[in-house]
Amino acid sequence: MSGFVRVCAVSEVAEESALAVELDDQDVAIVNSGGTFYAIADRCSHAAIALSEGDVYDAQIECYLHGSTFDLRTGKPLSLPATDPVPVYPCQVVDGDVLVDVSQPLDPEQPETEQAQAKIKETAAIKETQES
Ligand code: FES
């Protein structure tokens, strides 16, 4: 499946917390940090622990087992022992719902906002083409 899919309502994810969901057979953590929503693979790159169980703050999520933190915008680890990034996905809020596209993980080397904006424009263009 490709394209944005509704995963939950905004109201289901309290601020500075995460919700574990399954999308296209992938475990994904939907994270609300400061009112901004992010989608990150729900699997620490260090030892396959669910990141959704960890603490959320300042656009970061902390693995509860050994304490590595990951940037929710890029998936990059910000502290040891994890050294590999975790996939992050385009995420948007529309009419109180959280939509995620797991078919195209974001590039950890580019800011999440630029990629997400490009993806949203691409989706809108495809919809316009289909409707006309
Ligand atoms: S399992 Fe996540 S930091 Fe070790």
The rounded distance between the terminal residues' Cα atoms is 23 Å
What compounds sit in this structure? FE2/S2 (inorganic) cluster
Q: Report the CATH architecture.
A: 3-layer Sandwich
The count of helical stretches stands at: 1
What is the strand tally?
Answer: 10
Strand order of the largest sheet: 2-3-4-8
- Quaternary arrangement of the chains shown? single chain
Share of residues in helices: 10-25%
- The CATH topology comes to Rieske Iron-sulfur Protein
Mean pLDDT: 90
Tell me what you see in this structure.
By secondary structure, this protein is α+β, with helices and mostly antiparallel strands. The protein has a single domain (5-131), classed as Rieske [2Fe-2S] iron-sulphur domain (Rieske Iron-sulfur Protein), CATH 2.102.10.10. Helix content is 15%, strand content 34%. It contains 1 helix and 10 strands, in the order ββββββββββα. The strands form 3 sheets. Strands 2-3-4-8 form a 4-stranded antiparallel beta sheet, with no helix packed on it. The chain has a 3-stranded antiparallel beta sheet with strand order 1-10-9, with no helix packed on it. β6 and β7 (69-71) form a beta hairpin. The mean pLDDT is 90.
